[in-house]
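Data deposition worksheet. Section B asks for the primary sequence of the deposited chain exactly as it was used as input, without tags or linkers unless they were present during the calculation. Section C holds the resulting structure in token form. Section D is free text for depositor observations; keep each observation to a single sentence. Incomplete worksheets are returned to the depositor.
Section A, Depositor: J.P.
Section B:
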Amino acid sequence: MMGCGAIFGAAVPGFFLSSWFTMLLWGVIADRLAIPTTLSYVDAMIVTISLWIVLAPLAVSAGKGKWFNK
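Section C:
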């Protein structure tokens, strides 16, 4: 069983890495959506945390569904 420190220790580096990937790939996404093509690292962090807040509950609820036989 993972402790709270282990979860926190894995989530923090994952957040910063996800933000970095968001910043790097933003130009590709922005071209397709016709929005500004530059994104600072701080803005990438805001986009990343927003996505995490929206998608984490969906991932948890999907894990309790019939697809995973729980």
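Section D:
The mean pLDDT is 81.
Residues 14-62 form one domain.
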